[in-house]
Amino acid sequence: MTTLDELDFAETERALREALATRARHVQPSSRLDAILREASQPERVEGGHRGLALVAVAASAAVLAGVVWASRPGTGDATLPAGPPSATASPAPQPSDSASPPQPGPRPALTLALAVYWVGTNGGEGDRPALVRAFWGADLEATEPASAQVRAAVGESMRRSALWRGTVVEDVRVTAGRISIRLSDSGQDARTVEAAELEVAALAWTAQAAVGRGDTPVRITSDDAGPLLGHVSTDTSFTRAATPPESVADLWIDNPGPGAGLRGGDPVIVTGQAVAFEATVEWELLRGTTVLRDGFTTADAGAPRRGTFTVDLGRLEEGTWTFRAFTTSAEDGQTVVAERLVTFTVGS
């Protein structure tokens, strides 16, 4: 199986961040933000464009909600976003809302800096194992802020999405040529298993690396109480992406659009994402409510066990709320869903 050090997530993150920053003005905010954040408990610094990623970059710009892009988390088994106090650098945790209002007119919040954030979500499908998912989050930072400030903000946002880090804040970040050092206020709450704790810590390490944008730079995480992280993980070693098992990363990511994204009417809706899929086949459905109006499949640029990128051009959609579902099926029977991800977005006038 392909190891994670062979996968290049940084290229996509750079392209997506660049697109978000350049096209944010064309996006309408949606008042479904509160609801989506509660339902969703589911880019790195841009050095410039990259040849071969132009299509991904353009597609990425199609979905920014109030300057923020989230990856969707599938299924009803997902934990909701914790309602406790956020970290010192994260945005305040919104209150739940049952309303689903269309985009409202008014001033649009400005996107300052889009950071890739990783946290523990679920894979969806049969088994629905815990796995790393990715979001693109609009931080209240200027692009000129030092790498340490970007790491502090992004890691704080990642922690806010986990109940195990509730009440823990990032006290200090130091970035050198060969290491990213993060000091937390405490070691967090005890996870149920070693594996669960390791996955949560991996999410912080991946997030920190994405903010710095220098590949698989080792990440050292310590805490003021000097205890093992989440009750199980030693602070004596550094963490890398290469040390994360491939099965710890969700098979499917939908990078764009994000949940609750308010898209401008008249623009084509282009879905982009990544998948580990048998014969590179990703199936999809487009729904209004619970009704499937369109379906089809697309082919990623690599098949399992490799991770490939995929694109679905939905064209111009009518105004209203839509849900896009991506899923992969078993190589054995072609019916059993092995991974699934959904995202709901709104098309305005």
Automatic annotation (TrEMBL):
**Start-end of Low complexity biased regions:** 86-101
The residues covered by the Bacterial spore germination immunoglobulin-like domain are 252-334
Q: Which Pfam families match?
A: Gmad2
List every stretch annotated Disordered.
77-107
Task: Give the source's domain of life in one word.
Answer: Bacteria
The record's annotation in InterPro entries points to: Gmad2_Ig-like_dom
Tell me the protein's name: Bacterial spore germination immunoglobulin-like domain-containing protein
